[in-house]
Amino acid sequence: MTAEITTTPRGGGRRPGRRPRRGRRDLGTPRRLTRGQVILQGIVLTIGAIAFLFPFYYMLVGSLQNAPDTSIAGAFPNPANLTLNNYVQINSRINLLTGLVNSGIFTGGVLLFTVVFGVLAGYSLAVLQWRGRGVTFALALLVQTVPFQLLMIPLYVLIARNYGLADNYLGMILPFAINSAAVLIFRQYFLQLPRELFDAARVDGAGEFRLLWRVALPLVRPALVTVLLLTFIGPWNEFLWPFLITKEASLQPLAVSLANYISTVAGSTANPYGAILSGAVVLAAPVVVLFIVFQRYFTSTDLGSSVKG
Amino acid sequence: MSTSVRGPSAARPAAGTPPAAGRGHQHRRPVVQRILGTNPLGWLFSAPYLVFVIAIFAFPLCFSVYMSFFDYFFAAPGANVDRPFVGLANYTQAFSDPAVLQSFVNVGIFLIINVPLTVVLALLLASGLNSIVRFRTFLRVSYYVPYVTASVATIAVWLFLFGQSGLVNQLLGPLAPSPSWLSNPALAMPSIAIYVTWKGLGFYILLYLAALQNVPTELYESAATDGAGKVRQFFSVTLPGVRPATVLVLLLATITGANLFTEPYLLTGGGGPEGRSTSPVLLIYQQGIQQGHPGYASAIGVMLVIGVLIIGWLQNRFVGGRNES
């Protein structure tokens, strides 16, 4: 209901005096702070933001250093010590492109399953009346609290041993195929559409599939972006499961091959940190860029609804 | 938004057709609808998701509990092998295994540091972000970035930062701990706890930001009228107002902490030094997959989940503050 709150740009809201119209984003905001408090708050938040961003900056700087420089001066790029050689180094040990393609296939598969089946499930939970709807909704909430550590062994036994899907993209994708948070986000958005819309189209003889595809889906396009973004970071960053299920290097997602490099072969490289950090930059960049571009879809209310139900 | 569909056709049902159709509906509904509900198609639409939940969550969950009572081992598919029922042997073995007990102590240390730190920092930063006007988007994004980035990538930087001669020790100079953070038995687990707090904080800030929108402004106004200062307002209005979110954050942070695997595997080289940063999930991996004792590993998993359930119940009991139960 208040989906705009975190995304609304604060243009014009900065006038100190009485505001002519109290915006909705004012809801829940503590009343005006004194000047000193505002400055203090700004300082604290800025220091926090630096602490959160600095490792990323350091990752980039370290990946470009010819010789690792851990001194304080090393935190600043030194033109004499800059090189792209680390990227060449890591690429000769783990094929970065193969890793990226594998991560892409893994993530793409999850996205496809989640969007297709998540939309269907979300729609049926929000719009259709059927017996078992409440139970299904409860399941979608419950599933998110099931810890993966308990599922890891049985899933490994089933998928890798019984179905023989080890070293296979399908085996990698299956446990993440449909993101339950996505189902709940879709449901939340479909619920917000006016009921009359569906009744009207039904009376006109539109089938449910047509209704979903032509009427409902175009109206929840923002949800689609949120879900794609949220679902993307899961499999792209996932380490444990693909690590268990892929032993063949040519099938490993980048997170897995980089981790293997860190834990085993890094010692035998001239500048292991440079190489590791280069791999880290390549692994982190796609998500960070996507996230920054689409950050306005990553709002508290969209995602909050998925966890709170 | 409804304008896009409002046309001559969409306006028609308002003229009285649906009530008539609806009444006829109620009297003689087909058998399918009586069993499955008004829209049996709902079943069809949800079927793939339900199959997924059963195959990936429900069945493995039961299978895991089942396995923990057997001396289960891997065999070729289709091979008929005897996997004897061993009762509680896996559990008694786990309880007397010092490595397992150490891993539970480790995860306890982790939770004691990580969970309160997460709740306090997330709430403070979220309150700040909620009321700040300038650079709000920039600040918000900076806090979320670690959350959206792969653990493997951020761990690489932390290894570099917290190494023996890393930047952190350079800054600390003579105050640097020896042996360094990640290879120091007493500091390994706290270091991991701090790393995980940093990594996941963005998500919890997001949850608190959502919760803060639901605290009515009038409460702040009346508190201010009664002469409550900012600090007082925070404790008597904000804190009770976001209590449901706090319960959720506590629960999710505990579950995430119990799931700890990547960090001890990479950050401290597989649970070192001296097993002081081994997590139960790392042991599950080592026992169940590397050494081929899935039954034993499942028993450790069941114990861990029961532990999490107890902690979650206690949190809900004491922080949830509801009258029932």
Keywords:
heterodimer; A: 309 residues; mainly alpha; MetI-like fold; 14 helices; globular; disordered N terminus; B: 325 residues; 16 helices; 69% helix
Report on the structure:
The complex is a heterodimer of chains A (309) and B (325). Helix content of chain A is 65%, strand content 0%. By secondary structure, chain A is an all-alpha fold. Residues 1-30 of chain A have low confidence and may be disordered. Chain B is an all-alpha fold and 325 residues long. Chain B has 16 helices and no strands. Chain B has helices spanning 8-11, 17-27, 31-36, 41-67, 89-95, 98-131, 136-148, 151-161, 167-172, 188-212, 217-225, 230-241, 243-258, 262-266, 280-290, 294-320. At the A-B interface, helix 1, helix 3, helix 4, helix 5 and helix 8 of A face helix 1, helix 2, helix 4, helix 6 and helix 7 of B.
Task: Describe the SSE topology.
The complex is a heterodimer of chains A (309) and B (325).
Chain A: H1 35-63, H2 85-93, H3 96-126, H4 133-143, H5 148-162, H6 169-173, H7 180-192, H8 195-203, H9 208-219, H10 221-237, H11 240-245, H12 254-265, H13 272-293, H14 300-308
Chain B: H1 8-11, H2 17-27, H3 31-36, H4 41-67, H5 89-95, H6 98-131, H7 136-148, H8 151-161, H9 167-172, H10 188-212, H11 217-225, H12 230-241, H13 243-258, H14 262-266, H15 280-290, H16 294-320
